[in-house]
Design a protein that fits this description.
It is a single chain. This protein is of the alpha+beta class. The chain folds into 2 domains: about 150 residues, Rossmann fold, CATH 3.40.50.300; about 100 residues, OB fold (Dihydrolipoamide Acetyltransferase, E2P). About 20% of the residues lie in helices and about 35% in strands. It contains 8 helices and 19 strands. Helix 3 crosses helix 4. The termini are far apart.
Length: about 350
């Protein structure tokens, strides 16, 4: 199956309200052609609303949206069917009275090649032998693939996905998101997908835009977002952290683990934010093991040090048990820290 040329998406100063209740506030986002961007945030932060505005299912209150350089909302209006945008809904929204093949054919313009295009879309999603089946006879994973095939069949320039894996059980979700990640990479299509799951965002997204209260607080690669969050809330939302009280001066912060390197501009009371893999344990020390969680590939050890709690990621053969006295050491180069306001 051939794909249409990928199109970029540019959103400027977007605002939107429902019954005078603000949902989005001055939101800006730029998605490059062929890029996959995850919109990551808690429920109610405006992720799905933003997706619907891009698709043209709603009109923004303020601001503009460009797709492929064309103004589609804000000063002009291009209806959804002319935006060349495909969408996969959270519940997949398959037509129950249509076969798999007819579901996929629904968005394709009638032509002599329509059947060929349907067949190509089904083959791409490993559904070639299911064309005559009805949606109700399919597994959740198969229905999700049908929804993807239907969205991709008209060869959109941008693909939007709203929590595409949320209705799948854990093992199938892991399998399908890997398939989707590979598909996006192979097709080179521009994709924007909504999720509240950090693992999904980091795996599928080339970049991740973290949303909170109707705004994007940080857009970065998964690596930069994890290691260089803009604030404590973002740090905690995208991964496990331990927080220590500290006092910063001249590029170091004094805390219960000693003197740690931090950004030189920090001054005064700070919260020092540490990832579990930035810490290590040794026998005999001032800290006490409170809990041990074994995951097979590694072990998370919960440690108390005075009034503070730390989480330390160790290997699968870590010898510690509840009640052990241990010494905690920071093994990273520089610690994240944020001034108290």
């Amino acid at each position: 199956m051939t794909t249409a040329a990928a199109r970029g998406v540019t959103i400027d100063d977007l605002e939107h309200s429902y019954d005078q209740e603000p949902v989005l506030h001055g939101l800006c986002l730029n998605v490059e052609p062929g890029e996959s961007v995850a919109l990551l945030g808690p429920s109610g932060c405006g992720k799905t609303t933003l997706l619907r505005l891009i698709a043209g299912l709603e009109k923004p209150t303020v601001g503009s949206i460009h797709i492929g350089g064309e103004l589609v909302a804000g000063g002009a209006w291009v209806p959804p069917d002319r935006r060349r945008v495909g969408m996969v809904f959270q519940d997949w929204a398959l037509f129950p009275h249509l076969s798999v093949a007819n579901n996929v054919a629904y968005g394709i313009t009638k032509s002599a090649t329509r059947d060929i295009e349907v067949t190509a879309a089904l083959e791409m999603m490993n559904l070639a032998d299911l064309g005559d089946r009805m949606p109700a006879t399919l597994s959740g994973g198969q229905q999700q693939r049908v929804a993807l095939a239907r969205a991709l069949a008209p060869r959109p320039g941008v693909l939007l996905l709203d929590e595409p894996f949320s209705n799948l059980d854990t093992s199938l979700r892991t399998e399908v998101r890997t398939e989707v990640h590979r598909l996006f990479a192979d097709l080179g299509i521009t994709s924007i997908f909504v999720t509240h799951d950090q693992d999904e965002a980091f795996i599928v997204g080339d970049r991740v835009a973290v949303m909170r209260d109707g705004q994007i607080v940080q857009t970065d690669s998964p690596q930069a977002l994890y290691h260089h969050p803009v604030d404590r809330w973002t740090a905690e939302f995208v991964g496990t952290i331990s927080v220590l009280a500290g006092d910063a001066h001249s590029g170091t912060a004094q805390c219960s683990l000693g003197s740690l390197a931090v950004e030189p501009q920090l001054r005064g009371p700070v919260e020092v934010v540490l990832r579990p893999e930035q810490l290590s344990l040794e026998p005999q020390g001032a800290a006490t093991v409170q809990l041990v969680e074994y995951y097979g590939h590694d072990t998370m050890i919960f440690v108390s040090l005075g009034d503070e709690q730390l989480r330390v990621r160790c290997g699968p053969t870590a010898p510690y048990v509840r009640g052990d006295r241990v010494r905690v050491t920071f093994t990273g180069d520089i610690a994240s820290a944020f001034e108290l306001t």
